[in-house]
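Long-time lurker, first post.

We've been arguing in lab meeting about whether pyridoxal-5'-phosphate would sit comfortably in this protein at all. Half the group thinks yes, half thinks no, and nobody has a model to point at. So I'm putting the question to the forum: if I give you the sequence and the SMILES, can you give me back a predicted structure of the complex? Inputs are below. Any interpretation is welcome too.
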Amino acid sequence: MQYMSTRGNVSGVGFIDAFLMGLATDGGLLVPQQIPTVSAETLKAWSKLSYQELTLAILDLYTNNEIPADDLKKLVADSYATFRHPEVTPVTKLKDKLYLLELFHGPTFAFKDIALQFMGQLYTYVARTRNLKINILGATSGDTGASSIEGVRGKEGINICILHPHGKVSKVQELQMTTVAEDNVLNLSVHGNFDDCQRIIKDLFADLDFKANNNLCAINSINIVRIIAQTVYYFYAYFRVQEQEASGAEKISFSVPSGNFGDIFAGYLAKRMGLPVDRLIVATNANNILERFVDTGVYKPDNFRMTHSPSMDIQVASNFERYLYYVLGEDTAAIETIMNEFRKEGSLSVNEETLAKVRSEFGAYGVDNDECLDTIKRYESASGYILDPHSACGVAAAEQRGTGGVIVSLATAHPAKFDEAVQLTGIKQTFPAQIEALFNKPQSMKIVDGETSIIASELVEFFGSR
Ligand SMILES: *Cc1c(COP(=O)(O)O)cnc(C)c1O
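Top reply:
Settle the argument with this. Predicted structure of the protein with pyridoxal-5'-phosphate, as tokens:
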């Protein structure tokens, strides 16, 4: 298995090098040169595996034998030992034909832990075995930051700097990032929104000298390893639903609370690998660029809106290019052209034929603030289950864009992380002890202006001093 760039100027990259490269050096995103496929027999055999075993089986298709089996087994075991649920990502039934895939049982109570606990272990392993100094740089709308810091805090040979938009993440998200008292962690709280943070990161990674001089590595979902790790729970959920549906479900649909298109792209990859997926439903909030794309074929950022689901407050979905690559027939020249168009014009569009293809695979629905809160209230009063605002967007989209078949909606965060929104519904929740404890810890972060040059000098100072 080798990896190549969606823009065609990078290819033949191995697994660990792809992991370290993050964004492809030609500005594109890395994808597998060939998507591995699994047969019906393999699926059947996989249906009996534990989450960790399933992870190993899937990684085996992607890791190019670059990590000895025993080492990989230990990496995976250590990655999921930090989870509070023995199944890692359990599936619960919400109502007839609607299941919830709970992805929030990791250390920071959001789905990002699933990939980032593994990536933290992998960075540590690579730093040790290749004798490298690794400086991780990431931008977060809240959850990625907390998860990645948790994944590498205090680890030898690794430093991490996370940019978050100042005052635009939830209180618990901010506390999770800024109360980690470790010398290898720097939090920059940036004046601006998440798209500003993401743009700065992209600029810094695009400066190849800066990247090399500072040993920069990416933790954002531009990293292909994150996507691969996230395919696992689509398979896992499919198997659990098969067990629970009396007559089995031939194909199932997934509704995915989306921001950067990373999570749902993992679902698309799982489908391309052979998982019997019917539809993938892109659930967004009022920042609905993806919904508008599926409706019109035009991908164009609109005004930024703050919502109850801040981790989805994203205009430019960094993983979207990966999907474009596939829907445009793996034509790297076409990607080069269309992404240039996007850079110059600030928007891109696909033709009718391509749009029809998009619509045959994806449904999309944007959930506004009122509908989000209403969904939380309805499920709480019907079953006592408290959805967090992101998961509520997923469930609302599942209700609106279902096909009549079985749907699994992804629960991407624990409600305690977003109590600001839950409180507006009048529902009172009790916080898990780990979250309660955060409020008594001192915070450490530096507030900075959202300019690439300013961030660059902060990084040189921090990474240089370590
Ligand atoms: C990151 C995040 C999302 C969006 O996932 P993408 O991979 O960016 O599409 C949704 N919900 C929560 C809670 C998140 O942290």
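For your lab meeting: The chain is about 45% helix and 15% strand. The longest helix spans residues 224-244. Whichever side wins, do check it experimentally.
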